[in-house]
Automatic annotation (TrEMBL):
<dbReference type="GO" id="GO:0000103">
    <property type="term" value="P:sulfate assimilation"/>
</dbReference>
<dbReference type="InterPro" id="IPR002891">
    <property type="entry name" value="APS"/>
</dbReference>
<dbReference type="GO" id="GO:0019344">
    <property type="term" value="P:cysteine biosynthetic process"/>
</dbReference>
<keyword id="KW-0418">Kinase</keyword>
<dbReference type="GO" id="GO:0005524">
    <property type="term" value="F:ATP binding"/>
</dbReference>
<dbReference type="Pfam" id="PF01583">
    <property type="entry name" value="APS_kinase"/>
</dbReference>
<keyword id="KW-0547">Nucleotide-binding</keyword>
<keyword id="KW-0067">ATP-binding</keyword>
<comment type="similarity">
    <text>Belongs to the APS kinase family.</text>
</comment>
<comment type="function">
    <text>Catalyzes the synthesis of activated sulfate.</text>
</comment>
<dbReference type="InterPro" id="IPR059117">
    <property type="entry name" value="APS_kinase_dom"/>
</dbReference>
<keyword id="KW-0808">Transferase</keyword>
<feature type="domain" description="APS kinase">
    <location>
        <begin position="114"/>
        <end position="263"/>
    </location>
</feature>
<keyword id="KW-0198">Cysteine biosynthesis</keyword>
<dbReference type="InterPro" id="IPR027417">
    <property type="entry name" value="P-loop_NTPase"/>
</dbReference>
<protein>
    <recommendedName>
        <fullName>Adenylyl-sulfate kinase</fullName>
        <ecNumber>2.7.1.25</ecNumber>
    </recommendedName>
</protein>
<dbReference type="GO" id="GO:0005737">
    <property type="term" value="C:cytoplasm"/>
</dbReference>
Length: 361
């Protein structure tokens, strides 16, 4: 019930004093991970990319700077990131990054997926929105949470005050990039589909995310094909001079030089893959990436858990499937055979750990 005080309505509120929050070390938190799923991914559930997909080398995920920022009880302590951020702010001053005790990894574990941004770029009519929808549908049917940020749609709200001048396009892209970053941080697979004609604007969005979390997909469809499709009649208007600064007609489009995936269609008469086929290519890339990431997390989890509990030291071994190469610490490489993982899939985790320890001894 809403109380009335001095004629004004006062919303009911709850006031409480919180006990000190205990921060659980991340390795312990990983105990909640669905290990059987990890194993199924390790076994090679992901299909390799094929056809016109160009895979960038799979990079290890670098923790976001804010996620590595030390968690301290003293609220006056400012991390390096905060200081750098404060100095970079253009108009806001005296602001600090506030870190939550529930972080990206927690949310990803809850959702059983990796938050990332799939950035679809290309001319108007190249099939960006169609691919975004198809991808979203395929991910949804696999139990993955995805959300589309479509250029056209965002211009109905968030970006309604922006035109198609270069600086407004840049601002449009910057805002969508920032929102996409938030979605990725929420653990969601964010599909951004917008023309984003300028390389530097796309690269700026990429730089907002940790390496590997930004997947750029180029709809490499010739202008003549897009123009022939012209579902909204905009090319016709642009050719007639009724729309000025239309991308591909009298405004530039800079194709990506080194993006993760190129979906190419040759010409008007060539048969184009269906949107479903295209979505599968993107998903195969994500599967591949996920396998890598989860494998690495599993190794870390096992290593931390076992060496922490019983002080067992592992010898460096052959774990190329999960190693990230040169920068990986030797101690992260376990000589456990993957067959051990069968136990993880079928037996309760603590019993599995005991079995592994007995085998090693
Ligand atoms: N001048 C001009 N140039 C290009 N496109 C135009 C223009 N005017 C309106 N439209 C319609 O706006 C859609 C593109 O919006 P975006 O936000 O994706 O553009 S951008 O990234 O800021 O360049 C685009 O949608 P898509 O066809 O889905 O790409 C067009 O329908
Ligand atoms: N893979 C495809 N093959 C053939 N036609 C397609 C394909 N993808 C999209 N289209 C068609 O092309 C047109 C433009 O697609 P759309 O997704 O709206 O492009 P964009 O968002 O890049 O402007 C639509 O009529 C759509 O049905």
């Amino acid at each position: 019930m809403v109380a009335v005080q001095g004629g004004a309505q006062v919303r009911p509120s709850i006031s409480t004093t919180l006990p000190d929050v205990e921060f659980v070390p991340s390795l312990k938190r990983l105990g909640f991970v669905n290990v059987s799923r990890f194993y199924s991914v390790l076994r090679g559930g992901g299909g390799g990319g094929s056809g016109s997909v160009r895979l960038r080398s799979l990079q290890p995920i670098k923790a976001m700077e804010d996620s590595t920022a030390s968690v301290v009880n003293d609220s006056a302590a400012i991390s390096c990131k905060s200081i750098r951020q404060m100095s970079k702010m253009e108009k806001s001053t005296n602001i600090m990054w506030h870190k939550s005790s529930v972080d990206k990894l927690d949310r990803e574990q809850l959702l059983q997926q990796k938050g990332c941004v799939i950035w679809i770029t290309g001319l108007s009519g190249s099939g960006k929105s169609t691919l975004a929808c198809s991808l979203s549908r395929s991910l949804h049917s696999r139990g993955k949470l995805a959300y589309i940020l479509d250029g056209d749609n965002c211009r109905h709200g968030l970006n309604r005050n922006l035109s198609f001048k270069a600086e407004d396009r840049a601002e449009n892209i910057r805002r969508i990039g920032e929102v996409a970053k938030l979605f990725a941080d929420a653990g969601v697979i964010c599909i951004a589909s917008l023309i984003s004609p300028y390389r530097k604007d796309r690269d700026a969005c990429r730089s907002l995310l940790p390496e590997g979390d930004f997947v750029e997909v180029f709809m490499d469809v010739p202008l003549e094909v897009c123009e022939a499709r012209d579902p909204k009649g905009l090319y016709k208007l642009a050719r007639a001079g009724k729309i000025k600064g239309f991308t591909g007609i009298d405004d530039p489009y800079e194709p990506p030089l080194n993006c993760e995936i190129v979906l190419r269609q040759k010409g008007k008469n060539s048969t184009s893959p269906t949107p479903c086929d295209l979505a599968e290519i993107v998903i195969s890339y994500l599967d591949e990436k996920e396998r890598f990431l989860h494998g690495k997390e599993l190794i870390r989890w096992l290593h931390g858990l076992i060496s922490g509990w019983v002080g067992v030291k592992f010898v460096s071994g052959n774990s190329s499937q999960v190693s990230d190469g040169a920068n990986e610490e030797k101690s992260d490489h376990l000589s456990l055979e993957y067959s051990c993982m069968y136990f993880l899939e079928t037996i309760h985790i603590p019993s599995t750990i005991v079995i592994i320890i007995v085998c090693l001894k």
